[in-house]
Design a protein that fits this description.
single chain, 20 helices
Length: 446
Amino acid sequence: MAEEQSVEVADDKHQARVDRLMESSWYRWYALGILVLVYCSSHVDRQIMGILLEPIKMELGASDTQMGFLIGLTFAIFYATLGMPIAMLADRTNRRNIIALATTIWSGMTVVCAFVGSYAQLAMARIGVGIGEAGSSPPSHSMISDLFPQAQRATAMGIFAMGINLGLLIAYLGGGWMSEHWGWRTTFIVVGLPGILIALLVRFTLIEPPRGASEAAKQDRAAAPGLGEVWKTMLSTPATRHVVFGSALAGFVGYGMTLWLPAFFVRSHDLTQSETGLTLALMSGIVGGIGTFTAGRLADHLAQRDPRWLAWVVALGKGGLVPFLVGFFWLTDFTSALMLYLIPAFFGGFYLAPTFAMVQQLVPVQMRSVAAAICLFLLNIIGMGLGPQGVGILSDVFSAEYGTESLRYSLMVFSLVNLWCAYHYFQAAKTLQQDTQRVADAQAAA
């Protein structure tokens, strides 16, 4: 009896602490900051392969097609497919603990990459990194949606998405210098170890927020539906279909560019690893980060006038950057090309925050983790899996005619996919208001 009373007292104290923190504005922003660190760590460990691609290729004697497979499908298949069952678990159990464990796994496997002795072993290690990273983003999206109301959600998602750009900044800037001075193996160790500390911060300083805490009513974990029901809900909603497929196309061209641009700078502009890292850190890390944050903030601001701006912001950004991106690859003068690249660098990540926010508002509260996982599954299978692989294959096809410049023309062709992406976001805007209201009405009735 005494033990039961002791447990009840402990539960009451824990609940009181949760309630106090959820009412504190500072805690919401602190939790978001920690989740940004998690997302940053995942993208450092993921994107470091881009800056290390050339030295690894030379040591292992691989072709562009093989390296495209290594940086694409070997990671993406496991990352994307495991994301859904882990998200189902996250909709029923403690999301904070899942994120902490996932961060530990991918950080440890990144360190393992330093000790491989063959192409096959490195592929297996990268699979391990993908398995770990599968457990991070869907639970993070769900937690952020419980911490921030819909009116602030795109801004919060924009700050969260900046973890990608911070990760690129660190991977390119630090990775380029470390690769040139310490070698690619030591680089893997240095970028992998900090993730362990971040995992401890997640486990011991964050709380598990109540489901639907930012909505009118909280939801029970037991109410979480199965994977098939979530798929059916998303497929039956026109705006969701267009947003998810549009984001997959954005990832297709985006990951293809991100992971092959370092090799392009080395081959076509004769930059060193350090020069490549510095250039891409400034462009993708800083300029791209400003663009990613701006997209979320701008989408929230304009959506107050017309909710369709959540989709229009992406459509205009992705469609408008195409001429500048084609010109960037066409020009052979490095300085002129780099000036043109400022525009694509700024607008490249414009789809992230609005997409994350729209997916969360287009499904019921109890489906959020799985819905995010489905979106990320398609984005990563089509984007991360097929994008880098496609660039590598097309580069090998063009090599007979263009030689060392084959990568330039492969990337130029890929840049046109942004127009297809923009089309789907324009289509999503047509039914976004009705589809969002339908979800809100169903939730209120329940």
